[in-house]
């Protein structure tokens, strides 16, 4: 399989232009442009596997059904972003702001959510097996509870939806 866009750095505007032209595969790209304007963009089903999208504003974007395996969103603002049905296996969401994000039915297996902010996020049906939730803030998050189906999750100073804190380290196996 050809790795379209492999390793190239592009602007947010170029990503939007190429997506609008029908391109969907952007693995391993880099967008580190704080000035890029992606707010409200429709990027459903896009493939950004392994991409570095540091610190770019991704507010209210539709990334539903996207392939985001091992994508690095460290420090990104994703307030109100729709990540429903997206695959974020192994993604780095460290320090990412996911306030009011829709994470329903997304796969977060092995994802690094250390220091992530998930205030009022919708986590209905999200798969978090193997996720790192150290210092994550789930205040007001919907459908986030510890249950018998969770495996391999690390809680450490994790703020739960009701405001309680799992001081930890606590590992659910």
Task: Give me the secondary-structure topology.
Layout: H1 12-20, E1 132-134, E2 153-156, E3 158-159, E4 165-166, E5 170-172
Parallel strand pairs: 1-2
Antiparallel strand pairs: 2-5, 3-4
Can you characterise this structure?
With 173 residues, this protein is largely without helices or strands. It has one domain (1-173): Pectate Lyase C-like. Helices cover 5% and strands 8% of the residues. The protein is built from 1 helix and 5 strands, in the order H-E-E-E-E-E. It has one helix at 12-20, and strands at residues 132-134, 153-156, 158-159, 165-166, 170-172. The protein starts with 11 loop residues before the first helix and ends with a strand. 46% of the residues are buried. The model is unreliable at 1-5 (pLDDT under 50). It comes from Nostoc flagelliforme FACHB-838. InterPro entries: 5peptide_repeat, Pentapeptide-BTB/POZ_domain. It holds the Pfam family Pentapeptide.
């Amino acid at each position: 399989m050809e790795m379209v866009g492999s390793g190239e750095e592009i602007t947010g505007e170029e990503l939007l232009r190429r997506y609008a032209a029908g391109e969907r595969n952007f693995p391993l790209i880099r967008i580190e442009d704080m000035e890029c304007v992606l707010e409200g963009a429709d990027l459903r089903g896009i493939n950004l596997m392994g991409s570095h999208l540091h610190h770019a504003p991704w507010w209210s974007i539709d990334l539903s059904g996207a392939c985001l395996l091992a994508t690095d969103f460290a420090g990104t603002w994703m307030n109100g972003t729709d990540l429903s049905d997206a695959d974020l296996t192994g993604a780095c969401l460290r320090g990412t702001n996911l306030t009011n994000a829709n994470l329903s039915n997304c796969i977060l297996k092995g994802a690094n959510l250390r220091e992530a902010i998930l205030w009022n996020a919708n986590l209905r049906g999200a798969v978090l097996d193997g996720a790192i939730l150290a210092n994550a803030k789930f205040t007001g998050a919907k459908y986030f509870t510890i249950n018998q189906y969770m495996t391999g999750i690390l809680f450490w100073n994790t703020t739960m939806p009701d405001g309680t804190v799992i001081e930890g380290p606590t590992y659910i196996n």
